[in-house]
Design brief:
alpha/beta, six-stranded mixed β-sheet, 33% helix
């Protein structure tokens, strides 16, 4: 007999992540980032208590390193003790970042915590806080950092459970953005195994791969680099007595990585561009609901500012203005623009150029012809750089890049040449 219950699915806490490459960031930014994974952990506890969940499943990579920091271990035990006081159980598997073989302190875990071993799949009963059996939880931790076997193949349900939740830290259907650890196929998970919910970890982007049975990545709880943009947190799962599921996203991040773009089309001066950039920052900060924001801005579009933005000093000064004009107060929402990139084009009328009997027109037509013929483009480029190819250092770089000749080189070259010609026409 099934009973309604509520649980939280979280994964990839990566406690005490080092956030490398931020040596030049202001001190408040560095401090906020270093503290952010711990803040997300505390918010996870608050969310579980506030929403009166029955239990939590943590699908691997609680720690960022196999030899986990003492601070991270103590913080985790402290939060789990708070959950114990509210009758909330915690079910844990370890992943590739925090395998059971890693060094750890001799800490006694609260009685509400179950850590699954690494030798084989294990299962434990999970109860509502009022005492009724809600589900069986299944899981297996990583014994070592690299696990290439299909762990899911050995997962089997037990017939006496009213609901089956499988925890797995692995790569489903070969996601190329993450290491191929514990690889398996989606079709295998949704086949005849009988599980109702697969609580996945390892992939840091939240996604529902399938419904009924549900196969779900909760994503990580806190973005840790510019690639991990958008809201990060956990999933709260409500299960009815009829086994209907409702998933709700609960944000946990204290620092949010965002990317925004703005077109230079129609913008006539650097001052006007700066004003629009300031408005963009205000909107991004408002959308973050009081969180601290790490923002990457990309300038795109075509306009008269293009030839100025090609000068690195211009974008550097604009970035400095955006950074200096914003307070970074501890404990308050702030926004820090960590990079400003120009991906703009000259104000060129391509239709006119294509028919124009001029040097610029001939240049445009030739570049478009090359872009349609890869072999011709490679031959042209090889002839163009043959002088530099004999250079001791530059030649090595070119040979290394040559096998995968970047197509954007042609586009960038076209934009640069036509932009310079257009700029000269404006000045003459």
């Amino acid at each position: 007999m099934s009973v309604p219950f509520r649980f939280i699915h979280a994964a990839d806490l990566h406690l005490d992540s080092p956030f490398r490459g931020l040596a030049n960031a202001p001190a408040p930014v560095r401090e906020a980032l270093m503290e952010s994974t711990f803040a997300a952990l505390r918010e996870l506890t608050h969310a579980a208590i506030r929403n009166q969940v029955d239990f939590i499943v943590l699908a691997g990579d609680l720690f960022d390193e196999a030899d986990r920091s003492l601070r991270a271990q103590l913080a985790l035990v402290k939060e789990w003790a708070k959950l114990e006081e509210h009758g909330i159980a915690v079910y844990v598997i370890h992943g590739n970042h925090d395998p059971l073989s890693g060094a750890r302190a001799e800490l006694k875990l609260p009685s509400n915590v179950v850590v699954f071993g690494s030798d084989q799949m294990e299962y434990r009963p999970a109860y509502r806080r009022s005492g009724e059996l809600a589900a069986f939880i299944y899981g297996r931790s990583y014994g070592t950092r690299i696990v290439t076997e299909n762990m899911a193949a050995a997962y089997q349900t037990q017939p006496e459970a009213p609901f089956h939740i499988a925890m797995l830290h692995g790569n489903v259907d070969g996601d190329g953005t993450h290491d191929p650890y514990a690889p398996c196929e989606l079709q295998e998970l949704i086949g005849s195994k009988g599980f109702d919910y697969w609580a996945l970890g390892h992939i840091h982007h939240r996604r529902v791969l399938h419904e009924y049975p549900h196969v779900v990545y909760a994503g990580n709880v806190q973005g840790r680099n510019p690639r991990e943009t958008g809201a990060k947190g956990c999933l709260m799962v409500d299960v009815t007595a009829a086994k209907a599921l409702e998933l709700s996203f609960v944000p946990l991040d204290s620092v949010r990585w965002l990317e925004r773009s703005i077109s230079i089309t129609g913008i006539g001066s650097e001052q006007e561009l700066l004003l629009q950039l300031e408005e963009l920052l205000d909107l991004a900060l408002t959308d973050s609901d009081g969180r601290m924001v790490m923002l990457r801005i990309v300038l795109n579009g075509r306009g008269p500012l293009h030839h100025k933005l090609m000068e690195p000093v211009v974008t550097r000064v604009l970035l400095e203005q955006l950074q200096e004009g914003r307070a970074l107060s501890a404990g308050e929402g702030w926004i820090h623009v960590y990079t400003l990139e120009a991906n703009t084009g000259a104000e060129i009328r391509t239709e006119e150029l294509e028919a124009e009997d001029s040097f610029a027109g001939e240049l445009y037509r030739m570049s478009m012809e090359l872009s349609k013929d890869q072999l011709k483009w490679r031959a042209f480029a090889q002839d163009a750089i043959k002088g530099a190819a004999n250079h001791a250092k530059l030649g090595r770089v070119l040979r290394r890049e040559w096998e995968e000749l970047p197509e954007q080189w042609l586009e960038q070259g076209r934009e640069l040449a036509l932009g310079l010609l257009h700029g000269n026409e404006r000045e003459s």
